[in-house]
Design goal:
heterodimer; A: 298 residues; mainly alpha; MetI-like fold; 73% helix; elongated; B: alpha/beta; 4-stranded antiparallel sheet; 11 helices
Chain lengths: 298, 330
C-alpha cells in the first residue's frame, strides 16, 4: 500500500505531456526535410484532385480549333494540345484519375497481399508453400508485362487497369507481410494470447497485423509511385484510359506525335508524373527512417 | 482431496529433420484441488514441454502428444479435445503465466484492451461490466491507479508491474488451474518476493490449483505443498515439500538440494552436479541419470528403474530403493 501511495504522488508531481505515438511521429517527421516537402506536395496533389474540376480555367474536353498546339502563355498556362484543349485544366482533372487509380489499386493489392501473407506466415505448411510459390511465378514476369497481359485478357479501360495493377502488387505485399508475420508469431505475447484462448483470426488480426503495419505503410507509399507509373504506362500504350480522357499517361501518348514541334504537350504531363512519383518515393523513404527502429538513432 | 488434473504416461515428441525425438517419456503426476504443485528440474528436463502439453499449445511447432492421458476435472481427457474445445478451456479453466513479463504483453495494445480480451471471450460480459471487472482484477493484484493503467501501454510499466498485469489476465476468468512457468525468474529479488506473495495470496483466496514450474528450490520451499522432480523427460521423484527437503531420495534431487548455497557456509566452490542434461536424441541406456550419479550401480546402466512407491505417498524412480536388485531400502 505504501508503494502504491508513493507511485501515485510521484505521477501527480510529474504531470508531463502525455506520451502519444502520433506526436512522436510528427516530431520525427519534421526532421526529415525532403520528406516534409514531398508530403506537402502530395497534400497539394490530393487537394487538387478533390477541387481540381472546380478551379480548372477551361473545360478539359472542349476543343478550341483557334488555339491548337499553343505554347505556354497567359491564356493557357501550360499551353494547349492538338485539339486546342487547355493542358493545365487537363492536368488538374488528370490528378484525380491518377491518384484514384493508384490509391485504389495499391490498397486493393495491399489488402489482398496482407491477407495472403498473414495466412501464409501464420499457418505455414502447404498453404505457405502454395501462396509463396504462386507469388514466385508472378515475380518471374516483369511487372508491366504482367499488367499488359491482364489488361489484354480483361480488355482496356481504367477499371481493368486498377485490377491489373492491384494483382501485380499482391505478391510483393504477401511476401513482405509473411516475413513480418514469421517474426511476430514467435513472440511471447502471441503465445500468451493463445494461452488465453484467443482464436487464430484474433491472433492474426489483433496481435500480428499491428506488428507488420510499420513496414506495410512504408511499402504502400513506395508502391503508389510505382502504380502511377504503371497506370500511366498502360494508358500510354493505349490499354488504359481512352484517348480523350485527361489521364496523364493518355496525354503523353497523344502528344508524342508532336514531340519535335510542340515539346510542351509531352513535357507537361511528363513533369506531373515525374514529380508525383518522386514525391511518393521520397515520402516512403522518410517514413522508413521514422518508422524503422533500426535506423531511428542515426 | 479431489484430483483436479491427472497426467498419466504422457509422451510428447518433436520432429526434427524427419527424425522423431521424444521429449517426454511417460510423465505421471497429479494436482489436487486448491494445491500448489512445484515442477522442478534443470533446463532441458521437460518442465515447459509438460505445461505446453497440458495446454496443447503446439501449433506452429512440430510438437505432438504421442500417447498418455491428461484428465482434467475428473474424466475430461484433454488429449481428445479439438482445437476449438481447447480454446474454450484455455484462459477460462486453465490459465498460464509466462517467464518474461517484458515480452508477454503486446507492445502496441493498451493494457486495458489486452486485459479485456479473455474477459470478453470467456465471460461474455457487456462492455461496461467487463471494464469494471478488469479494473477490479487490477486492484486485486495490487496495481495502483488501475483506471489510468487501463489506458497505458506496456512500455510505460516496470517488469514487476507487467508481471502483475499478466497475473491479472490469467486470473481474470477464475481459472481452476494456473500454470506459472518460472513467473519470477526474470524479476529482481525484492519484486520476486512480492510477486510470489501475491500469487500465494490469490491462490488461497480463490482456491485455485497452481502448477509452479521453476528451477529455484527456494521458490519451491516457500510456495509449494508437493513437489515433482523431473529429469530428461521423466518424473524421478515426487514428494511432500517437507519430506523432499528433509530426506531427498533420488540422487538427482539430493544433488539439486546440495547445489543451493547455504547461508553461513564457507566454501571456495559451490557444489554442483557434474555433467549436463543429456541431449534428448542421444539418451543413455538404462537410468538416464546414471552417468552423472554418485551412487551409480551396475544395473543402472542396464535397465531403467521403475517408479517405486515409498512411504508417505511419495515415489521415486531409482534402483537404490528396490530391495531385490541389491539396493538399500531406506
Amino acid at each position: 500500500m505504501e508503494l502504491s501511495k508513493a507511485v501515485n504522488s510521484s505521477t501527480t508531481i510529474k504531470k508531463e505531456k502525455k506520451y502519444s505515438p502520433l506526436r512522436e511521429l510528427l516530431k520525427n517527421w519534421k526532421k526529415q526535410k525532403n520528406a516534409l516537402w514531398a508530403s506537402l506536395f502530395i497534400l497539394l496533389l490530393i487537394t487538387v484532385a478533390i477541387i481540381g474540376p472546380f478551379i480548372a480555367p477551361y473545360d478539359p474536353y472542349k476543343p478550341d480549333y483557334n488555339a491548337m498546339l499553343q505554347g505556354p502563355g497567359i491564356d493557357h498556362i501550360a499551353g494547349t494540345d492538338e485539339y486546342g484543349r487547355d493542358i493545365f485544366s487537363r492536368l488538374l482533372f488528370g490528378a484525380r484519375i491518377s491518384l484514384t487509380v493508384s490509391f485504389l489499386s495499391v490498397f486493393l493489392g495491399a489488402i489482398g497481399g496482407t491477407i495472403l501473407g498473414l495466412l501464409s506466415g501464420y499457418f505455414g505448411g502447404w498453404l505457405d508453400r502454395l501462396i509463396m510459390r504462386s507469388s514466385d511465378v508472378m515475380f518471374a514476369f516483369p511487372d508491366i508485362l504482367l499488367a499488359i497481359a491482364i489488361v489484354a485478357i480483361l480488355g482496356p479501360g481504367l477499371t481493368n487497369v486498377v485490377i491489373a495493377v492491384s494483382i501485380f502488387s499482391i505478391p510483393s505485399f504477401a511476401r513482405l507481410v509473411r516475413s513480418s508475420t514469421l517474426e511476430a508469431k514467435e513472440t511471447v505475447f502471441v503465445e500468451a494470447a493463445k494461452s488465453m484462448g484467443a482464436s487464430h483470426f484474433r491472433i492474426m488480426f489483433q496481435h500480428i497485423l499491428p506488428e507488420t503495419l510499420g513496414s506495410l505503410i512504408v511499402f504502400i507509399s513506395m508502391r503508389i509511385g510505382t502504380a502511377i507509373l504503371a497506370a500511366s504506362s498502360l494508358s500510354f500504350l493505349g490499354l488504359g484510359a481512352s484517348p480523350e480522357t485527361p489521364d496523364w499517361g493518355a496525354m503523353l501518348s497523344l502528344g508524342r506525335d508532336y514531340l519535335g514541334t510542340s515539346t510542351h504537350v509531352v513535357m507537361m504531363p511528363g513533369i506531373a508524373i515525374f514529380l508525383t512519383v518522386l514525391a511518393f518515393n521520397i515520402v516512403g523513404d522518410g517514413l522508413r527512417d521514422v518508422l524503422d527502429p533500426k535506423t531511428k538513432n542515426e | 482431496m479431489e484430483k483436479l488434473l491427472q497426467v498419466e504416461k504422457l509422451e510428447t515428441q518433436f520432429t526434427k529433420d524427419k527424425q522423431k525425438i521424444k521429449i517426454l517419456h511417460g510423465v505421471n503426476f497429479h494436482i489436487h484441488q486448491g494445491e500448489v504443485l512445484g515442477l522442478v528440474g534443470e533446463s532441458g528436463s521437460g518442465k515447459s514441454i509438460t505445461s505446453l502439453s497440458i495446454m496443447k499449445l503446439f501449433k506452429g511447432t512440430s510438437g505432438e502428444i504421442n500417447s498418455g492421458r491428461i484428465l482434467f476435472n475428473g474424466d475430461e481427457d484433454l488429449i481428445n479435445k479439438s482445437e476449438t474445445e481447447m480454446r474454450k478451456i484455455r484462459g477460462k479453466q486453465i490459465a498460464m503465466i509466462f517467464q518474461e513479463p517484458m515480452t508477454s504483453l503486446n507492445p502496441v495494445m493498451k493494457i486495458g484492451e489486452q486485459l479485456l480480451e479473455p474477459i470478453r471471450l470467456h465471460l461474455g460480459l457487456e462492455e461496461k461490466k467487463a471494464k469494471e471487472h478488469a479494473v477490479s482484477i487490477l486492484k486485486k493484484v495490487g496495481i495502483p491507479r488501475a483506471e489510468e493503467i487501463m489506458n497505458e501501454f506496456p512500455h510505460q510499466l516496470s517488469g514487476g508491474m507487467r508481471q502483475r498485469i499478466m497475473i491479472a489476465m490469467a486470473i481474470s476468468c477464475n481459472p481452476q488451474l494456473l500454470i506459472a512457468d518460472e513467473p519470477s525468474t526474470a524479476l529482481d529479488v525484492t519484486i520476486q518476493a512480492q510477486i510470489l506473495d501475491l500469487m500465494k495470496q490469490l491462490q488461497q483466496k480463490e482456491k485455485m490449483s497452481v502448477l509452479l514450474i521453476t528451477h529455484d528450490l527456494g521458490v519451491v520451499a516457500e510456495m509449494c505443498e508437493r513437489v515433482v522432480v523431473m529429469y530428461a523427460g521423466r518424473v524421478v521423484e515426487e514428494a511432500d515439500v517437507f519430506d523432499l527437503f528433509e530426506s531427498p531420495k533420488h540422487p538427482y534431487t539430493k544433488g539439486l538440494i546440495a547445489s543451493v548455497p547455504k547461508l553461513g557456509q564457507k566454501k571456495e566452490k559451490l557444489d554442483s552436479i557434474k555433467g549436463n542434461v543429456p541431449n534428448p536424441s542421444e539418451l543413455p541406456k538404462g537410468c538416464k541419470f546414471a552417468p552423472r550419479c554418485n551412487d551409480v550401480m551396475p544395473i543402472c546402466y542396464e535397465q531403467e528403474p521403475p517408479e517405486l512407491n515409498l512411504e508417505n505417498a511419495r515415489s521415486c524412480s531409482c534402483w537404490l530403493y528396490k530391495e531385490e536388485r541389491g539396493g538399500i531400502r531406506v
